[in-house]
Amino acid sequence: MQALAIGLLLALGATGAQAASQVTRVEVLTVIPSGIYKDVAYVRVSGTVHGVVAPDEDVVGLDALPKNTNGEVEYASRFEAIVPRAGQSANEALYVDAENRGTAVSQGALGGFLQAKATSYARVQWQTAISPGVPAEAQGIGLVILRDFARWMAGRTPAEVVGGWSPPAHRRLILGGISQSAWLVNTFIAEGFNVDPKTKRRVFDGAIAIDGVGGWLAINRIAADRGVKGQHPYLDPDGVPLQRAELLKRPKTDPVYVDVANATDFYRLRAGLTSTAHTSDTFRRYDFPSPHAIGAANPRCNDGQPITYHSLRYAPYMRALVLGIEKAIGVKAAAKARPLPPSAVFELGPAPSDVAWFNPLPGVEVTTPVLDANGWPKGGVRFPESEQPLGRPLPPAVSPVTTASISQTCGNAAGWQAFAAAERQARGLVDEDSYLTRYQAALRRLEAEGFLLSEDLPKMAADARTAAP
Asked: Residue 140 maps to which CATH number?
């Protein structure tokens, strides 16, 4: 009898043995109108998610934190969602925006585009000092929060909801990030958090990392295994980027993953170490001639000297890629979209030496783009601006070009040198009509290739008319 009793205890689990990470309670604080898209009314919902982290999670520093009676670490974190109003048709797809320093970073490029494509939007705090639930000594809890918030939004885990609103179950999930939040995307996937702890299936079906380029955050296991001292929600300055095989090493649960490098990433983030033309059902890499960010006057940049910044933007290309991911993961609303194009990467060569606009990696040979006669990278995704340029991006990254801290971001921007009239004429850019004819032809080519959407072409053509010689 005693043996039987012990067996039953083991089967049922003693106190804490059945602990499982998940969102347990949600406080809805506001529900306000957020526009009408294709006759569907949306609302913006904000509130706080409460949840628990089970003791078996691979979170560095978890053991030392206070626990509840089940041996779990409890947390609270703010969230926001933009979804169809109650009574409207539910969306199949949800785009979860990995916050960048607590901001809705993808909204600048996507905005109402997602809603117009029948896609919901959401974000949740994951970063220490921004989320009250993420302690500085165990920042990997932010990875658990992100995963379990997505599981809840997908209707895969129950939770008590206070406030009169509950999300519809989203069947397809996409995780997206830009810059710091793209490195969160990478860390999340590489460390195995895209695996649902209950079902062992994938959490996110697709992912896009703008400026991802193999970067990872020093917040958990990768950092610990590589000997990084302490935890911080940014790159390790001398950290070697993750190769594709290190990032996507779980075929059964890896998402369809799109990695985008902007031109400045090759000088600041060593993007040449991860640039690959590999194309598969689950991987694409695209190298863009645009800068990581548009610079602004900053006395800490360019030795305090005034500089004209390169202002080429990648937002319409990102929109097309998000829709391509939706098609790839089977979202019905994206069934007629063009498929993701094959990978398109720059031609690379030896990195420059003894220049202020390159960030070397000690002991590692880093490559940078080979430049054409006009000073633009060869290969990659051929934006119209790089095929018939009105100037050159110089310097290709603004000094200081460093990853030493989260606040030193000058190198995300590039300088700009406009061509004089004689230089434009030498390149055949003698009048507005000829320039616009060639520009529009390039737009149509990019649409046919799947890098642009037809709805974005009129505005791009109008902007080109403003810039035309």
From this structure: 3.40.50
CA distance 385 to 418: 12
Cα separation, 69 vs 78, whole angstroms: 24
Please indicate, yes or no, if residue 275 is contained in any of the structural domains: yes
Give the span between the Cα atoms of 18 and 275, in whole angstroms: 44
Residue 430 counted as domain residue: no
Give yes or no for a contact between 257 and 248, defined as CB atoms under 8 angstroms apart: yes
Residue type for position 285? R
Q: Name the token pair of 310.
A: 């390169």
Backbone angles phi, psi at 21, to 5 degrees: -70, 135
Cβ contacts of 440 within 8 Å, gap of 6 or more: 457, 461, 464
Do 357 and 411 touch, CB atoms closer than 8 A? Answer: yes
Residues in CB range of 270: below 8 A, 6 or more apart:
213, 241, 359, 361, 364, 366
Range of the domain at 103: 21-419
Confidence category of residue 7, pLDDT binned at 50, 70, 90 = very low
Scanning the structure block, which residue is given the tokens 């400045």? 264
Q: How far apart are CA 277 and CA 336, in angstroms?
A: 26
Predicted pLDDT at 18 = 57
How many CB atoms sit inside 10 A of residue 62's CB?
A: 22
The full DSSP string for 314-341 is -HHHHHHHHHHHHHHTT-GGGTTSPPPP
The 8-class DSSP code of residue 257 comes to E
What average pLDDT does the chain have?
A: 94
DSSP character at residue 418: E
Residue 163 covered by a domain: yes
- Residues in contact with 343: Cβ distance below 8 Å, sequence separation at least 6, in sequence order: 276, 277, 278, 279, 283, 284, 285, 286
Q: Which two tokens stand for residue 291?
A: 């800068």
> Cα separation of 58 and 291, whole Å?
36
d(C-alpha 317, C-alpha 131), whole Å: 31
Over residues 70-121, the pLDDT tens digits come to 999 999 999 999 999 999 999 999 999 999 999 999 999 999 999 999 999 9
| pLDDT tens digits for range 369-407 | 999 999 999 999 999 999 989 999 999 999 999 999 999
